[in-house]
Amino acid sequence: MIHSVSETGWSTLPQDIIVTILSQGTIDWSAETARAMSQVCREWRNKIVMDHHIMESIKFSSLRYRPHAKRFKPGVGEVPVLHRALLSSNVTACIVTARYHSSYSNYSSACKYWKIAAKKAHPEALAMLAFEYYAGRGADKDPEEAYLLFNRVCKMLDNIIVELNIDEKNESFLPPLMTEESCKRILQFSSHVLAILILDNEFMSPFDKSTTSAVKWLKKSQMHGCPEAGKLLQSMFRNGQY
Hints:
mainly alpha
């Protein structure tokens, strides 16, 4: 009786053949699939975790704290697949890891992974990285960099929401690990802070530092449910600022 794949001919296949089989587009590389297949035998594990294409393709959905683990440390013990995926700049791996660190107020570690995902233009990563620069929380305070990132993500999310409004059934416009609701929520937050940066900071050029631009983003934030943006608009109107 055969008890495991390691007792079959699969485990003795040359590694280049194994990785060719595993790299076929027919496999939906979820984190669970990768973890299960990496536990089949040493040969599979080595080729899965060392293959950049596979590690980059895995779709992670969440990262939960395990009570028996003293602390989360990628690459140690139970998370070799996640660790290798992070080294391969896997966007979903970076997002779930950054969210995890943020949930425990470990902002400098979160910032490290927000930066990686932001380089791949992920809207949530761009927005969260912008806030780190704005608040000086996980990175040195840099309002100019925060402005550039918030400006970029606001335009990006505004376009995504427009596309979703045109074809609400087409979810191909959605970034990984984001829903239409989360897109609107992040746009609400980002456009509010962007407007404040435009109005308040001296680094803005006269061309960029316009009340018109600030009002545009405040209205966008208010439209998506931000009461503070509405109050600021009312105050600006009463003071004759627009």
